[in-house]
Structure formats: structure tokens, C-alpha cells
Amino acid sequence: MARKLAASKYNERRAECEEAARRLGVRALRDVRDPEAVEALPAPLRQRARHVVRENLRVLEAAAGVSAARFGELMNASHASLRDDYEVSIPELDELCALLRAAPGVYGARLTGAGFGGACVALCRTGAARGAAQTALAQYNTHGRQGRILIPVPG
User: Fold this and answer.
1) Domains of the chain: which residue ranges?
2) What is the C-alpha to C-alpha distance for residues 5 and 66, in angstroms, rounded to an integer?
3) Contact 24, 38 (CB under 8 A)
């Protein structure tokens, strides 16, 4: 069965972000300069806007250049925000990310894609990716689950 993007929930999140931006008087949430401004919004607009505004700040920080350890911290914070504020994670991805974070040589892990299932990505120390993935999957692939490892080849 092909995975769907949980279309109604995806569209719901988009509409919530558009409404939050409208209430904050900006064209898009990326235009919010003060992350505390979103705290005045009602739920769930507050949580959705909090995720987007803080995610933008995390991306800007990472793009400015940070250590691998800091990048991992930003990835972990991103996953927590996707799980708690944006509510697009699922228990299986939360578990897999936690297992990856606990594996030797992993700086951070987060879900990737639009959420509601799918995949996660981990930032690993050079040479540690395969071992970290195998360690995490050995624990994850129980009860009939079959996670897979995809490791990019440096090009």
C-alpha cells in the first residue's frame, strides 16, 4: 500500500499556519521576528506557529555554520518540535530517532519529509553511520517491523 501524506492533516497544518500568520499580521510565519509573539495565539495556532518560527531560527543558525554536535542538538530540537508542537510524528519515528540518538557516534536524529510516517535522518560521526543504524535497527525491528538503512555515499 502506497503511503499517503495524510492529506487532510497536512492541509490542516498549512491552514493553521496561514491563520496564525494572519492573526500575527504577517504574510507568512517566516516574517515573525520575535518568537515570543506566537505565545499570544490560541491553541493549536500557538503550537503550530511556535514550531515554524523556531524551526526557521534553527535553520538559520545551522546555515550560519555550527559544529556537528550543535547541528545534532538542533536536529533533536527539531524532532521534538515536530512531535510536540506540529504534531506530525508517529510513535514509530519517535522510537527510531531515540534509538539512533542513543547509538554510538550519532550527533542527532529527526523525522524527515512531511511527517505522519515515513523516514528519519541522523547525523553521524564519519564512519559511524552503518554501525549506528544497525544498532538502532536491531532494537527497532521487532514485532514484525522492518526498518531499512540508507546511507549516502560521499560524492
Assistant:
1) 7-140
2) 32
3) yes
- Residues of the chain below pLDDT 50: 1-3
| CATH class belonging to 7-140 | alpha beta
Q: What does the alpha-carbon distance between residue 137 and residue 142 come to, in Å, rounded to a whole number?
A: 9
pTM: 0.90
Phi, psi of 105 (to 5 degrees): 85, 5
Return the bridge partners of 119, or none. Answer: 112
CA distances (Å), 76 to each of 24, 25, 69, 110, in order? 27, 30, 11, 6
Picking from 77, 89, 75, 83, the residue whose alpha carbon sits closest to that of residue 118 is 89
